[in-house]
Amino acid sequence: MPDRWFDGTYYKREITLNYSDCNTERRVFLHYILGLFSEIAGDESQSKGRTHEALVSRGKIFLITRMSIRFNRTPVVNETLIFRTWFRKAEGKFFFRDCEIMSPEGGLIASISGTWVLIDLSDHRVLDTGDHPIPNVKSFSEAAESPECKKVISETPLPIIGCRPVYYTDLDCNYHLNNTTYTKIATDFLPSEYQSREVRDYVVNFSKETKLGDTLEIRGGHSGERYIIQGFVDDIQHFASEFTFSES
Fold first, then answer.
1. Predicted confidence (pLDDT) per residue in 172-219, tens digit
2. Quick check: do 4-131 and 160-245 share a fold?
3. Looking at the domain 4-131, which fold is it?
C-alpha cells in the first residue's frame, strides 16, 4: 500500500516517527505533528488538482490562521501513525479542515482542526470563501474532537520573557516564517519544567506574517490553568499560543 491515499471520504497518510521528530522524552514534537497536518492538507489539494501554482496564477493564495490539537496520548519514537483528514466546511471568510491521528489498529491518538483564509495577492485582502476559483469543493460535516480554533487571549498582560530573531531557515516558500516555527518558538520559551510535560490541548493563532529581519518579542505566563506564549514585533501581535498540560 502507498504511504498516502484517498479512501473516498478521507485523505490518508501513514508515517513512522524518527528520532529527529521527537524530544528528549522520546515524545513527538508538537510542531512536527502540526506541520504534518498542514502538509497533508496541501497534499490532498494537490492530488485533486487544486495546486498552489494554480491559485497563484489566479492572484490568490491560502494562508492558515489558526490550529488546535487534542492528544488522547502522545505518540513516541518509532511509532507508526495514520493521519486522515477532510474538508469540513466553508463559512464566512474561513475554510475549516479537520484531522484525526490513528494507530494502525484504529485507536484515536489525537484530533486536529485548522482554519484557512483565501488572500488576494495584489492587495492582501481576505476574500470570501465564495471567491475560491474551484467552487463546490466536497465537504463532510463530521467534526474532530479537537479544541475550538478560538482566539487566544490572555486574562492579563503578559511579561516579556525574551526575544527571538527570525533566521533564514525559519522561512518557507512564501518568504515568511513558516507556521510550524511559531509553535517551535513557543515551546522553546516555555519554562523548563513544562517542556518535558505532556500537552493535552494546544491552540495557536497566526495573526500577522513575520519576515527575515524581524525580531519577535516573546511574552509569556500563566492565564488560569493555561500557559500562553505570544510574539510581538513593534507592539503588534504576530502569534499567540495556548498550552494546556496533562496532569502529572
1. 988 899 999 999 999 999 999 998 899 999 999 999 999 999 999 999
2. yes
3. Thiol Ester Dehydrase; Chain A (3.10.129)
